């Protein structure tokens, strides 16, 4: 049996990594809030970050398929988040920077979920050979992936600033 390989496979891989990242961010958030196990939360955040980066790699790889159809695909938008969605996003330099570590993990998980949804939609458009819509969905997914990475980084900064090496579960060197 021969299967059509292409952008849909990369979108599917991105979805898997986004889903993994969601679980790890939710687990990190739980460790911060419930167990106060900051070291374990930081570890979960690091694993989530790795899955987020892998998801972004697969998303970018999927976009290479759309360059073959350049005549039907609009130029890459330098800001992949649609204007209507901007009001709900926490971005660098806005009031939301004061979010707690748990809030950043929650926001990161939410953005990973949205990115996965857009990757699934992009794959569907790709399979129907609607490359313009597929490319647009891929760009939106990438924007959410970037937001999730931002929030993961902010959570990590919060951990270092508030707990550092002297945190309650840090090992003594």
Q: What are the main properties of this structure?
A:
173 residues; mainly alpha
Order of helices and strands: HHHHH
Total domain units:
1
Total count of strands: 0
Q: What is the overall number of helices? A: 5
The separation of the N and C termini measures 57 Å
* Rg for CA atoms: 18 Å
Strand content: under 5%
Q: Mean of residue pLDDT?
A: 79
Task: Show unreliable segments.
Answer: 80-96, 168-173
**Content-based structural category:** mainly alpha
Shape: elongated
Helical amount? 55-70%
Secondary-structure topology with pairs:
Layout: H1 7-35, H2 38-66, H3 83-86, H4 101-127, H5 131-162
Helix pairs in contact: 1-2, 1-4, 2-5, 4-5
Describe this structure in words.
With 173 residues, the protein is mainly alpha-helical. The protein has one domain. 70% of the residues lie in helices and 0% in strands. It contains 5 helices and no strands. The longest helix has 32 residues, at 131-162. The chain is elongated and about 50 Å long.
Concise structural overview:
The protein is mostly helical.
